[in-house]
Amino acid sequence: MSIIDWPQGERPREKLLARGAAALSDAELLAIFLRTGVKGKSAVDLARELLTKYGNLTGLFAAGRDDFCKVAGMGPAKFAQLQAVLEMSRRALQEELQRGDALGSPRVVRDYLQLLLAGRQQEVFLVLFLDTQHRVIASEELFHGTLSQTSVYPREVVKRALSHNAAAVILAHNHPSGVTEPSGADQLLTRALKQALALVDVTVLDHFVVAAGQTLSFAERGLL
């Protein structure tokens, strides 16, 4: 059955307008983005198929172009539209962080890091550089690959902090395994970075470990 044949109150677009976006399921939200289905499948059916293939929205957002375009009804245009939506979301969250205190907006920080890091297939080490009011000056991915105390160079982090004239930093990296529990190496690395940055009067406010749908805070766990 086509969505147009559904009761009006159950159609995703009408449901969103009547009850707000939060009332919709992931599949319904994705169906609005897709707009149309393919022969024999409504937009909601196609959305459910995509979510089944990729596991969840995070997996879908991280999909590569070639793999995404192999799905019937998808293609380069849809992939470009999806990437544009994601980038606009990232920029909107970054603008919010630049306007206010990052520590006063923990949800925004977590949402921003989820969009940047969750679903990545390799480990990425990112630093948010903050001013004296804890507003974000810049966000930089500094290291990629297997992260450890030997592959993340404290001197490079210090160099970038001085370059931005940062007063504080928030560290973050992802765990592609999906488990946010920090390893012993993560804790050693955090201590090394904290000590190196303290020498130039830059404070480490937190270190987040990001996985799909989960974000662990070192500060909240008492690990800083």
Overview of this protein structure:
With 224 residues, the chain is an alpha+beta fold. The chain contains nine helices and five strands. Helix 2 packs across helix 3. The longest helix is centred in the middle third of the chain and has 24 residues.
Number of helices: 9
Q: Mean of residue pLDDT?
A: 85
Order of helices and strands: HHHHHHHEEHEHEE
- Rg measurement, Å: 20 Å
- Strand share of the residues? 15-25%
Number of E-state strands: 5
- Outline type: elongated
Low-pLDDT parts are: none
Distance between the termini: 55 Å
Helix content: 40-55%
Task: State the secondary-structure class.
Answer: alpha+beta
For the largest sheet, list the strands in their spatial order: 2-1-3-4-5
Note the topology.
Blueprint: H1 12-19, H2 26-34, H3 43-54, H4 57-61, H5 65-69, H6 76-99, H7 106-117, E1 124-130, E2 136-144, H8 154-163, E3 168-174, H9 184-198, E4 203-211, E5 214-217
Parallel strand pairs: 3-4
Antiparallel strand pairs: 1-2, 1-3, 4-5
Keywords summarizing the entry:
224 residues; alpha+beta; five-stranded mixed sheet; 9 helices; elongated
